[in-house]
Specification:
- The protein is built from no helices and eleven strands.
- With 116 residues, the protein is mainly beta.
- The strands form two sheets. Strands 2, 4, 5, 6, 9, 10 and 11 form a seven-stranded mixed β-sheet that branches. Strands 1-3-8-7 form a four-stranded antiparallel β-sheet, with no helix packed on it.
- The model has no long low-confidence stretch (mean pLDDT 97).
């Protein structure tokens, strides 16, 4: 059974940093791309960052230069380092995996709140 468990969310002041983690299990982690998706209240889900199985990365324009996605295949974990956080980054952040058949798996989400 595929499981994705996020951690590391919290409250931070504007300009601060947080590091999110997503621990994966139930599949061969190194073979799959992983992504972080966020959803703010009243907004649609937004793909924030993607990392492929070959470590290629892509970012939403809104976070480029501030967020960094990385993965540790020895720990079956994907990370999202978030720097220079802004109030508009406030959202629930989800870890997602899409398998080769197109099925998507999501974690439970972790809340990030950026406020002074």
């Amino acid at each position: 059974e595929v499981q994705l468990v996020e951690s590391g969310g919290g409250s931070v002041q504007p300009g601060g940093s947080l590091r999110l983690s997503c621990a994966a299990s139930g599949f061969t982690f190194k073979n799959y791309g992983m992504s972080w998706v966020r959803q703010a209240p009243g907004n649609e889900r937004e793909s924030v960052a993607i990392i492929s199985s070959s470590y290629r990365t892509n970012y939403a324009a809104s976070v480029k230069g501030r967020f960094t996605i990385s993965r540790d295949n020895d720990k079956d974990t994907v990370y999202l380092q978030m720097n220079s956080l802004k109030p508009e980054d406030t959202a629930v952040y989800y870890c997602k995996m899409r398998n080769w058949a197109g099925a998507e798996y999501w974690g439970q989400g972790t809340q990030v709140t950026v406020s002074s």
